[in-house]
Structures are given as structure tokens and as C-alpha cells.
Amino acid sequence: MYQKTTLIKNAKIVNEGKIVNGDILIEGEYIAKIAESISPKSADVNVFDAEGQYVLPGAIDDQVHFREPGLTHKANIETESRAAIAGGITSFIEMPNTNPQTTTVEALNDKFDRASKTAWANYSFMFGGTNDNLDEILKIDKKDVAGLKLFLGSSTGNMLVDNPEVLEKIFKSTDLLISVHCEDEATIKANLEIYKERYGDDIPVHFHPIIRSEDACYISSSKAIELAKKTGARLHVFHLSTGKETQLFDNKTPLKDKKITAEVCIHHLWFSDKDYENKGTLIKWNPAVKTEKDRDQLLKALLDDKIDVIATDHAPHTFEEKSNVYTKAPSGGPLVQHALPALLEMYHDGDISIEKIVEKFCHNPAILFEIEKRGFIKEGYYADLVMVNLNNPWTVNKDNILYKCGWSPFEGTTFKSRITHTFVNGGLAYKNFKFYDTRYAKRLTFDRD
Q1: Is residue 124 located within the same domain as residue 36?
Q2: 3-class secondary structure for 76-110?
Q3: What total number of domains does the chain contain?
Q4: Which of 156, 195, 279, 328 is spaced 20 to 30 Å from 174 by Cα?
């Protein structure tokens, strides 16, 4: 049950480029009032004293893989959405490469049904495109889903869209926002053969960013952008991993008017190729973590607004799966619990401001996907709120990792900042590693004509 009224006192409220001291009154699911000082009008009000801690809008993660249905030995909607709210992520958009793949209306509706019963964070899904499902794509109402996901490289099953005629037809035919994974498959295959000839299956993992190279990324992303410009499609390029690709994007247009946008993921902002020596296949992602120079250029493009949003690409596998030799170890790793603490660590290091973190991880996903009444701390908006203590250190270890897979690439890392409270639609869902019995999650809705 929702508290009838909740009052957060003495908060540092981070919203729209400003930090203000004040109080937040929540009535039911919504933020009713924001003011310098609000007094409770009755004894029924549930009062939280933030004691000067920061309150942020709940983060919106526009790219996760929660593995349900079909791959639930790795993860499921319930376990990973719980980990998400512990990490300050109150809304997620999940990808279509499950089993069955989300490439039919029936499979999409099944996912919505599953999430309605088990999700701890607000949810929506991407619909998947293939070489042969245009008829299904055209059935989708753009108010029903977050968007369309196309794999232009590195996909499971038959989700690689590698027919140029089909690709152009999809771009021309849909009003859905098209999100793409861009790596050129021919380039990767040629590179892989060179190293397989030399090492067999046990390729040293530090060759991963050479196999899944800068060229592979740039060839694919530049082609996708060229096609979007030709057709007028609305394109969002997922998980940039190279500095070179950032040159393809514009920072002269307000986000709400952009037709071509970009995302960077936390692992490409945190790790570099120097970390393969210690982390091995645990940091094997597609696209690959690349050089320190790439990492620095990605951060610069994020701060310069060429890159519009931050996401996780949360993609868990079991530790046993990740422990295989290079060619057998799957790419991807779990991140939703630790992405915001990692970004706050970057704030402590002077790399990014808290206001910019909120812009890229909260505001901009809401603007980009036209999500209704979320991503901001505003009166009349849903009360998705995260309280953080910037000076309460904790170390990531097996006892506090919440992912079903039980491991994290951040294991052993000490973060200075801790998520202390997470409110989802006005309900307190999480407090200091404790979850409450009630789930408050709702299906995301979209303000689209």
C-alpha cells in the first residue's frame, strides 16, 4: 500500500542543472509540492529527514538485458529490477534478444505480462527487428513500446539485420525510435580468423578490442547514420565505444529536436584495455572496452553533449560461462546496481558534475524516449526519487551483490557514495540494502502523437 503522504525534508534537490535545498511532498504516486520548507499537516504524514543528503530523480536505464524469458539461469526481471532500484535506477527499457525473441506482438505482450507481476522498477521493452519481420514491426503502436532495436552486428539467434534492402525498408517504414548496436560483422570475422589461426580458441582477452575494432564500430555506425539521414528515420546509436565515433554526432541541436542521438555505457567510461590483465573475460563486452584515449574522448563527448545519455547495457551471464576461454566466453556483464555509484565516484574524482549525471542518466532518457512524467523532480511528476549519501563508503563484495549471477566487474571496488533510499511511484521500495514487501512499479507510458 502507498503511504497516504510522504514528506522528504532537508534535501539537496538535483534537477535541471541546479542543486537547491528544500523539501518534497509526495501524495500517492506523485510529487505534490516542492518548496524551501514544507510542514506536515497531520500525524499521518511519513516524514524522512534527508539531513542534507542529495535527492536525485530516479535514473532511467535505456538498455538492459534481464534474460527473461528463456535465459533465466542468468537473470530474470525480478532479480535484476531489484538490483536496479538498489542502484538508484527506477525505470528500465529491456532488450529483445531473449528466448523467444521479442520479434512478435505475442512475445512482446508476454513480456509485459511477466513484468507486471514481478518488476520492482518501472518497465518497458524494445521490439526486435529481423530480416523477415517487417509485418510484425508495422503492427506496433509507438505508444506501446520504447522503440525498435536492430542488431547491425553481434547478435544471438536470427536478430542480425544484415540485408541492406530490408534495413532501408525498416528505416523508411516505421515511426518508432530505432536503436542500433553498431559493429561491422565482416570486419570482426576477418579479425577473429587471424587470432584464431594464431591461438585457437584460447585467444588472450586483451586482443578483444583489436578483434572488435575501432574500424568495425565506425564502419557500422557511420552507415546507420547515413541511412537515417537518407530516410529521415529517428536513430539512437547504443553504447559508443570509440572516440572516433563521437565525431559523427552533433551538439548544436537541442535533444528534443535531434533526429540522431547517442548513448555511452558506464563500462566504457570506467574501464580501459589496461584492465583486461586483471579482469579478463569479466570485462568482455560487445562493443569492446577500448583504450584510455577512447575512454577520455567518450567522456569529453558526453560532457560536450555530442553523447546524450548514459546507460548500463546490463547483460549478466553466470560466472562459469564467463570463465570459459575467449571464444566460448559470452560478452556482457551485470551493471545496474553499481552504475550510479560508479558515476558518483567519477564526480568525486572531478570528472563529471552531479548535475550532469542527472541530466544524462535521468532527464535525457525521458526526453529522448518521450516518457511521461518521469526523469525529473517536478510537481505533478511520478515520485521516482533516489536519496544518496556522498560520504558513506562501502565495498562491493559477494555478500552485497544482488544480481542473480552473483558477481560484478566492480567486485573489490570501494565506492564513496551509497544509495540510501529509493522511491518508486511514491512508495519506499528500498532502504540501505533492505527491500520492502510491496512493489510499486508501473509500465512506462509515452507522450507521443
Answers
A1: no
A2: CHHHHHHHHHHCCEEEEEECCCCCCCCCCHHHHHH
A3: 2
A4: 156
